[in-house]
Amino acid sequence: MPHSAVVRTDKETTKFTMVFHASSKGQGHKSLNDCLTSGPPLNPRILDVLLRFCEFESAFCSDIQGAFLTIGIAEEHRDYLRFFWFPDKQDSKSYKILRMTRVPFGVTSSPFMLAATIKYHIRKYK
């Protein structure tokens, strides 16, 4: 899966973010997003969200990309999220095999994993 680094020196916390292009297709091949299911819709309907903004005195919003970066991948599942890293772009034989430790942003199943994680923690602390 093609990926690239986004470097933001102006940011305080996340100066370096990996962007994975999960919709990228090779010639005659499917993309990663084509092979994944998005899961059932767990996000609230937009009408419900707008009505809640009118109902309560305060509201909040968040950085959705940052939310994905806070969800860790269990150690036993990281082998399913391996990728090649080429430190030297000129030398295709020099590479490392790395494993993701966080939920990747931009993958079809990521919104479901985020919503399921939020619901899990809400139920856990109720």
From TrEMBL:
GO terms classed as biological process: DNA biosynthetic process
InterPro entries: DNA/RNA_pol_sf
Protein name: Reverse transcriptase domain-containing protein
Taxonomic source organism: Araneus ventricosus
